[in-house]
Amino acid sequence: MKIRQIIDKIDENQLFVPAFQREYVWKRDDAKRLISSLIKDYPTGTMLTWETNNPPELKGKYKYEDNKGAVKIILDGQQRITTLYLLMKGEIPPYYTEKEIENDIRNLYVNVETIELEYYKVKMMENNPLWINITDIFKGKTRERDITDELERRNNGERLPRERETIISDNLNAIQRIYDRDFLEQVIPVKATIKETIDIFYIVNASGVNLTDAELALAQISGYWAQARELFKKKLQDLEKQGFVFKLDFIVYALLAVTHKMGSKMEKLHTSDNKEKLIAAWDKLDKSVLDYVCNLLQSQAFVDHTDEINSVYALIPLIAYTFNKPDSKLNEEEIKKAVKWFYYSQIRFRYISQLPQKLDKDIGIINENPNPFDTLLALINEERPLEIKPSEFIGRDIRHPLFALMKWYFKSKGAVCLGTGLSLRKNMGKKYSLERDHIFAYSVLRDSGIFDMDNQFQYAIAQEITNRAILTSSENREKSAMFADVYLKKVKQDFPNALKLQSIPETEALWKVENYEMFLEARREMLATELNNYLKTISIGQVTVSTTVDLMDMIQSGEHGFLEFKSTMRWNWKEDRLDKKMEEIVLKTISAFSNAEGGKLLIGVTDEGEILGLESDYNTFKEANKDHFELHLRNILNNAFGKEFAATNLNVRFPIVNDLEICEIDIKAAKTPLYCEVAGKNGSPQKKFYIRSGNSSQELDIEETASFIKNRF
Asked: Where are the domains positioned within the chain?
């Protein structure tokens, strides 16, 4: 079908988009790439349509009537078709509303001489007649003569060279010819049922990366429950007004959790036998559960907006637990335990990776365990330590969930803006107007010779959350680049309790710019102590439970700040030989964990989480077994770090995973710096200092090491 025909059929109510399709989500770069490909006559994909006398619910205002015969529905390719409609007509197609256009890709400009595509830029385009809105070209509002006349006028009436005129003409014709490009169409036959059609839609999309599993499940749900999508969207709009912004995926996860008690296997929702169960579940979620959970977070956890949440999917177990309660309400102790677990789920990154699998495990505990939040908390503790250490603040900026916890804690104490005295507790949704200002301003640190923008470590320290205060936007503007000691003295005078409520050290000597690093060190200690005490006392009725994390679950969740994988201790898989250099890598990792907050090293596991086992390492010893492996491991650890460190700071085990033996090393955070001796480029030994940063071990230079040790130890 030609593109011109597609546009006409949309306008003539002959071509539609089903309600189960998602909104328009393409971005400007996607639109530019599509138009560029069409101008160059490159392939642009296909369109999957379905001609039917029994269509599902359609997007837009048009209502199908039986006497109107068969209609054609776009199943795949609608993002490209919508892009073309928006750019060719400059209007939103009738099957979408303005709210469903997540990114408005109109007003794309083209340089008719170079065919460069850009969105409007004043300096580039304002006085250049070669830059034309591409919609004006498609609609015939701009012609070749208009452009050449303007160019000649600007050139004192001198005619353009024929060669240049030809280029402009050819390019304009290439744009206009897009109307007559064929869009390869694949058609599902009329006899197909709605279920069969959505199955095909699922297969087409599952083979690519266009839709998530939750979006595909929603497509299936909308096929047998036509009103579902609109009902979900209406609820999301209501929640957004309260400051809780979710996507449709979130609703699908919630439905899967309460109807099938799991977080994976979205295909469970694909069949129409779910309809009555889903309708009943949605009625309860819509009328009570979702509102209750969001209100609980606002009133008890001091979460005023989802912008403060590291992963909104931590709400799914809370929703499942509340859903199971007969009156959809929690008692006081349940609320405290739920809030405590929620906080730790954020700062210990429970749902950053392997979301479906972790939700499976956690929802299972919610449904089967008599003390679910105690058990869930113990599960986190098995993976990562609960106690917050001062060193965790080093170099952490406002994107780290510790900053969110810091804000929630401040709100729980009734903290106020340092300059206005206004409460930080404001439920303002999208108009949330609290800002995060630097206590020691960049310019002050730079001008004082303390801060070097080109030094990555110093830059990270200046960005650290311990150098932040929570202010209203108006106060932030007024404070500007004031010296910290001047500003904080004024705060102490105007609002004597404000500094304490935001955990800011009140020793005035620390406010001097020359004592900037001492201030950060003191505030790290202060915040760690106060946050740990706050978390411990949220729920005093904590039940002691014992739980073990399934090691395979841990491996599937991937490497992170407290977990590292190594394929081998001493066997080089790439070169198929014994390689002592591999031992250096293991030692480097152990020292990096020790210098940071501790962690776990698994040997016999690839970076991708594939279980290799230790056989290759075992075969490098005279007797191929774990005893000789462990003896050698302890020898190199003793030689590198001393017997005392190896005896007191490490715990070595050999668990069986997928019938293969691996080595599991738990490393405690050391009380003194741990250097690692490695071979330099010339082969001579060199002592180096490593820390854990994200999911890798990072070497620090001399200055960075001195600064880190001063702050950490």
From this structure: 1-106+181-210, 111-177, 212-384, 391-538, 551-712
Q: Exposed, middle or buried: residue 388 (CB in 10 Å: 0-12, 13-18, 19+)?
A: buried
What digits encode the pLDDT tens for the residues 233-255? 999 999 998 889 999 999 999 99
Nearest by Cα to 255 from 219, 218, 213: 218
* CA pseudo-torsion sign 430, 434, 436, 438: positive
**Helix %, strand %, coil % for the chain, to 5?**
50, 15, 35
Q: Give CA–CA dist 489/133, Å, rounded.
A: 56
Helix (H) or strand (E) holding 217: helix 213-224
Cα gap 621→160, rounded to integer Å: 82
* pLDDT value for 550: 66
51 near 70, Cβ under 8 Å? yes
Q: What percent of the chain has pLDDT over 90?
A: 53
pLDDT band at 359 (very low <50, low <70, confident <90, very high): very high
Residues 249, 212 contacting (CB under 8 angstroms): yes
Model pLDDT for residues 127-165, shown as the tens digit of each residue: 899 999 999 999 999 889 999 999 988 888 888 899 999
**Across 522-544, average pLDDT:** 84
Question: What is the phi/psi pair of residue 360, to 5°?
Answer: -55, -50
Residue 119's SS3 state is strand
- DSSP code for 88: H
- Cβ-based burial of 673 (10 A; exposed 0-12, middle 13-18, buried ≥19): middle
* pLDDT score, position 430: 37
pLDDT at 471 over 90: no
Residue 453's pLDDT is: 64
Q: Which fold has domain 551-712?
A: 3.30.950
Using CB atoms within 10 Å of the CB of residue 694, give its burial: 0 to 12 exposed, 13 to 18 middle, 19+ buried.
Answer: exposed
The answer to whether residues 110 and 175 touch, using CB atoms and an 8 Å cutoff, is yes
Distances 27 to 86, 91, 417 between C-alpha atoms, Å? 13, 16, 38
* Residue pointed to by tokens 């190594």: 566
Residue 100 structure tokens: 């469903």
Predicted pLDDT at 273? 93
Q: What is the longest distance spanned by two Cα atoms in the chain?
A: 93
CB distance 470 to 416 below 8 Å: no
pLDDT at 393: 93
Give me the residues paired with residue 438 across strands.
468
CA distance linking residue 618 with residue 249, whole number of Å: 47
Mean pLDDT, the chain, as a whole number? 87
Element (H, E) at 690: strand 685-693
Structure letter (DSSP) for residue 542: P
Place of tokens 């070595």: 652
Assess contact for 28 and 111: CB atoms under 8 A. no
Q: What pLDDT shows up at residue 189?
A: 77
